């Protein structure tokens, strides 16, 4: 066999194959993903859309917000079409390559049949050689060479064997490996240009692109919020644990996303020096003279004035401040979500005793309350009916009825059709139809709560220190299901604090008390003086931050009872040890073995269920969370908005958060989530509140109280089953006493008079 050799492509054939493959790999997916497509309007969806002036204006602004959309689509089409034309040209070029001896057939070259005799072969060769000989006028050197090889392959025995074995009368040639690059790349005179191109791409362009991307990415959090903004939120929320709503607006307006130094998209105009002061004069209680930094900076005062003007629905200059309003309001939902996350972190840092100030639940709810206010462009003390199209302060007087005044959207939806039309009698039929379209598509949430202790022997019984799991199920319906339906349960009126009007006790709080330095610890976190510490073996999973709840019926297990129960357990263990050493009947042994088999089988079943639960949970996490649910009617919000919800558990009496707010972003028909917290360590009846808040609509929040009848944990159980995540060596009594419970303290003990 001949040798091997490597060579660059001289003719460009293999290089064209490389270009053809490379271009096809890029062009096919690029055409699928980037080809501009115009979605055909759905007549049914168009009929459901609101045609109020606010929505019509918003559609026009959204279309005009991207003026380069048409030229951009045209440019993309030209690039893709040009790529396909180039691909077709390359395919045609490759198909025209004629490789000598690629399909060598001597009978076809001589024009004879495979069964031809030697005389016929010679006669055909003489006839064609006269025509193709290079000395003749009709000669062709290339074709004559092929003719000679064909004649040799059929007349010479060795040449025929080579052709039959290797497909070539000359025998096997040297194996050649071609590099699909043209030869001019390695030519000496072009080496400087080639090296310069490599250096420009790999030593300059690539490091600059990666470095720029890295520098920009490290400045932002996972939600694309500046890290400096998050630090500013941490500082102010820790400084002011009980923060009123207007203070939250001040903190939001100080976000560095609105500062030209940190965000190049911000536009600063010379006209701001005149328009902003004029706008401030129209807005009361703006606190523009606050000297705190960065609350006193110019960008912060401007953003605060824009937020107040937006909530008061004050028209702005379309060419200047109105454009700033659209940008500022469009950024606010992401910033408010970051505020909620920062407050949640501060709450659990306070539980871990790393900070002293504990943010109150009112501060967290004020942040959540601000989101629907900005989406709807409405203050929280205004009527929620103003979220409907064509409803203004003038025609709100029609909703006031001596028999039953209409204060919420849910109450308005429950009226009969003729009553609704009578209230809105000043509207035309087209305007009334728009009102009913918007009202019918608003959410009506079936809020279901289930409380249990997972992986415990009795899930319905809550024992001291157990991990309580609250399963929240949300079933979304359209508000149209309430239209004139007398069977639907009556909707309770809800105040701005998220508490029903008929059960308002224990709510509220001093929102102006900003100098409270110590975290108030309720009774169930405290330990009685003189009592012995309750020693229980804890694993790393057990170290969950305890939650602050004040019991309705106070009291704690007596130390003497605990000691007496421990003594009884020791007596039982000693007796059982002696009985095991003694002789027992075979029937008793059989009964015990059967019981052991039942217990082992139940444990195996529990393990299998736990593995299935963890697998399902892991799959759900890997799937990711969608942010598409239902569109929101918000003509004053600059962008399209989707319905999102917060659900959490809190204690109204101590004004504290018990679980991190769970942000539900994909509620289309039904969604389920689990909230977990640690039960009190003292027995008694406790009340916790499960809350649901919308980030898009005002007045759509719900809450449900859960009463926990905490029972004393069985003395035989040293730790709850749900804490047994990993095996650990048993510790002696002295070592257990050394590990004091992090949920209790020797300070802040419960008073006997409480």
Automatic annotation (TrEMBL):
Chain intervals for the UniProt region annotation (Disordered): 500-610, 717-754
This protein's UniProt keywords: Chaperone, Endoplasmic reticulum, Membrane, Protein transport, Transmembrane, Transmembrane helix, Transport
TM region(s), chain numbering: 15-35, 74-92, 192-215
Topological category with respect to the lipid bilayer: Multi-pass membrane protein
SUPFAM superfamilies, per the entry: Chaperone J-domain (SSF46565), E set domains (SSF81296), Sec63 N-terminal domain-like (SSF158702)
Biological processes, Gene Ontology terms: post-translational protein targeting to endoplasmic reticulum membrane; SRP-dependent cotranslational protein targeting to membrane
Localization in the cell: Endoplasmic reticulum membrane
Domain of life: Eukaryota
PANTHER family: SEC63 DOMAIN-CONTAINING, TRANSLOCATION PROTEIN SEC63 HOMOLOG
Basic residues: bias regions: 526-541
Pfam families per record: DnaJ (PF00226), Sec63 (PF02889)
Protein name as it appears in the record: J domain-containing protein
J domain ranges (all copies): 105-167
Biased composition, class Acidic residues, residue ranges: 575-588, 724-754
A single GO cellular-component term on record: Sec62/Sec63 complex
MF annotations from Gene Ontology: protein transmembrane transporter activity; RNA binding
Biased composition annotated in UniProt, kind: Basic and acidic residues: 560-574, 589-599
